[in-house]
Model the fold of this input.
Amino acid sequence: MTRFWKPGTENPRLLDDEEGGVIFYNTSSSSSSGYGHMNMDKQRQRLPVYKYRTAILYLVEKHATTIIVGETGSGKTTQIPQYLKEAGWAEGGRVIACTQPRRLAVQTVASRVAEEMSVKLGEEVGYTIRFEDLTNNDLTRIKFHTDGVLLREMMDDPLLSKYSVIMVDEAHERSLSTDILLGLLKKIQRRRPELRLIIASATIEAKSMASFFNARKRQGQDDEQIEPNKEPAIISVEGRGFNVQIYYVEEPVPDYLRAVVSTVLSIDDLEPMGDVLVFLTGQDDIDAAIQMLTEDSQSNRKKGLIVLPLYSGLPRADQDLVFSPTPRGRRKVVISTNIAETSLTLEGVVYVVDCGFTKQRIYNPMTDIENLVVTSISKASARQRAGRAGRTRPGKCYRLYTEEYFINEMSAYGIPEMQRSNLVPCVIQLKALGVDNILGFDWPSSPSPEALIRALEVLYSLGVLDDDAKLTSPAGFQDPMISKMILASNDFGCSEEAITIAAVLSIQSIWFSSKGVQKEMDEAKLRFAVSEGDHVTFLNVYKGFIESGKSSNWCHKNFLNYQAMRKVHEIRLQLRRIVQRLGITLKSCEGDMKVVRKAVTAGFFANACRLEAFSHNGLYKTIRSSQEVYIHPSSVLFRVNPKWIVFHSIVSTDRQYMRNVISIDPSWLTEAAPHFYQHKQLNPIPH
Ligand code: CDP
Ligand code: MG
Done:
C-alpha cells in the first residue's frame, strides 16, 4: 500500500487519518453539506469573486487591461462574464468573449453559465469550438471559445470588432494559441482603445503579464487623463472554494501506475463516499490503470466502483458519462489526462490522485522532430489538479510524489508551449493574419530563434511562403504538409482522395481502441489493409463507411470509431468547400493509387525515410537528419517494412515511431522537391 502523510503531522500517517494536517486552502466555511440545495443566486453570491464584483467592474471600466488572479473555484470563469453582461458590456449588439485553452472546458463552462442564467445554451450564451458552433448571431451575448477558434475568427474580422470585452482565461497554461492571441490582442488594443481585456488565471505571473500589456511606457507619461488607463490593473481575488487537504507519499513511488491503483482502492476502502479523479499522462496509462482497477475489482468485491477514462480523443458519449451524476451508493473513478486539469468542475469529485507527470510535446529544431515526452508537472499544474477536488465541497488530494520533491524539484510554472513546439503552424497562422515581420512579433515570451527560422525555412521549401515571405496557400489548411498534398493532388487529378486522406490525418485515430481485443482489431484492419500503406487503407475504410450508409453498426463490426468516422466525413465536407473556393478541381483518380501516393509524397517529402540496409528489426533513418525511426505497430506496414516511405507524424515512447506511413518510389522525392533535396546536399538516392 502506498503510504501518505499530511505535511505538518509528526509521523507519516495512513490515508484514513482524519485529524490535524496542513490545510491547503483557507476555508470560508467548514461545512460540507447543504450547498447542493442552495438556489442558484445564493450559490453565485457564495463564491469569493462575488465580493469583488464592483471592484472588478470598476477596473475594467477604467483600464484597458485587467489581470485577475484568484484561486481555482473562486468563480472567475463562470461569474465574470455574467457580471460584465449585467453591467451593460453586451448592450448595443456587442458580445463578451471568454477563451479557454481546451474544448472540453469551453463546452462545460458555457453550459454551466447558460444554466445559471436560465437560458438555452446556444442563444444568449453560446460557444464555438472547432467543428462545433453553438451560437446565434442575433442572440448570443456571452460567447466562449477555445483560443484557437478566436484566432480563426480574426481571419474574417481582424480587429474582433464585435467584442467589447475579451477575457483570456487560464492564461497560465500558456498554450501556443493563448500566446499568439495575447500578442495579437496587444496589437488590436492600439487600434481599438474601447476594447477591454481581462487576463484571468489562478496562478499567473501577474507582474510580467502586466508589463507585457503596459502601453503607458511607450506612449509617454502625459496621457494620465485619457481613458481607459493604458497601464494594466491587477486584482487578486482572496478566498477560495472549499478545503483541499494535501497528502504526499512518504517515499518516492517506483511505479506510479501501481501507486494510482492502490491509492484508489484504499480511498474506496477507507474514505467516505465521493468520486475520485485521477491524473495520469496519456491514453496508454489510462487504459492500463483501468484494466488493473477493473481486474482487481472483480476479484475484490468492488462492485461499487464505476471506472471511466477521460482524454481528448474520447467519443462524446463516453465523455458524457464522466459528467453524468453518480448513482447512489456507487463511487465514480475518472482517470484523466491533463484535460481535466483546469476549468472543469466534476460535480461529485472529492478525491484527487495526482501522479505528478504529464505528456508534453517537445520540439527539437535541430533534428526537426517533435516528441511526446513524459515530464514532471509544474507547481502551477499541481495546484490546478488539487483544485479539482474542492469545487463543490471539501476534498483531499493525494500526490504520488514527496513534499520535498514538490518544494525543491518542481518548477513554479511550465515552459510555454511556444518555446517547445514546432512553429510551422504558428507561423502560417500569423502570416495568414497579415503579420509580416514574424521575427519581430511581440510575444509574451519569445520562442527560440532556431525554431522560428526552422519554421520559415520549411515553409519556403514547401512553397507555402513565396520569395516575399507571403503566404501562397490561403488559410483553412492548418497543417502545411497536408495543404501541400491537397494542392498537389490538383495536378495529379486525385483531389477527392487527397481530401479524404487529409480528413483522416486530422483525426487522432479512426480505429476503435481498446485493450484485450488486439487480435480482433488487427483482423478487422486486414480487411482494408493494402501494401501501399496507411493512407490508401484509409481510402478503403472511408469507401466502406459511405457504402454502409455511414452505419454505426458497420463501424462497430470493423473496430472503427464511429464518432471519428463521422468527424472525418464532416471535415471532408468542410475541406471540399475550401478546396473549391481555391479553384482546385474536385476529381477522383478512380483507383489509380500511384497518383495518390505521388500527391502524398508531394506534401510529406520532408518526412521521407529509408530502411537501413541489413536492418532486420525495421530500423529506418530519416533522410533529412538521419534520425532512427521505426514503423508504429498500428500501421498496416508494421513488419512489412518497405524500403522507402514517408510518414505523417512521429510518436516517441521507447523509440521514435512513425504513424501513418505510405510506401513511395524514391524518384518521386526529387520530382516533388528538387530544390529541397539539392539544397540540403543530401545523399544521392540509390535505387
Ligand atoms: O474559474 P474558477 O476556477 O475561479 O471557478 P468557476 O469555474 O467559475 O467555478 C466556480 C464554482 O462554481 C465551482 O467551484 C463550483 O462550486 C461551481 N460550479 C459548479 O458547481 N458546476 C459547474 N459546472 C461549474 C461551476
Ligand atoms: Mg476557471
Remarks:
- The first strand starts at residue 4 and ends at 5.
- Residues 76-77, 169, 343 surround magnesium ion (ligand 2) (CB under 6 Å).
- DSSP finds 24 helices and 22 strands in the chain.
